[in-house]
Amino acid sequence: MSLKSSADAYGKRQNAGEVKLRMLPPSQLGSVIFGCTNNTINECLSKNLFGLPNRHMVYVQNIRKGMPLFLFNYSDKKLLGIYEAISDGKKNIDTTAWTSHRTGKTTYPAQVSTCIRHQCNPLPENLFKRAIKDNYYT
Questions:
Q1: Structural domain for 113, as ranges
Q2: Start and end of every DCD domain (predicted)?
Q3: Within the chain, what is the greatest distance between any pair of CA atoms?
Q4: Is 35 among the domain residues?
């Protein structure tokens, strides 16, 4: 499955700031690109854990052990990888990850445990943006 197809799970932008999520079954989900910022990347990498907001659980739950994963840093616009899921996608694998000081709960409960499959140089967005253009927003 192409990188474009694997990113389809993110859905299409509807109105400003609103994204309609696609509910791809595991058989159509080739990989997933998770997001981070300079503020969250260290926790992603040190805990070997990627997470997204709860509404993304509709497809994160379809991540299976062994699936390739990528991490996009919204701060510097670079794609990191290649990572591998070492767990199925689940809710609240680590309830202390990315904890909100206001609520004391994780802000990214749709989670998957990861490991490095192949350490590649970070890819700047101009080299991959066309491959995922239908599902790319910054």
A1: 3-14+29-132
A2: 27-138
A3: 40
A4: yes
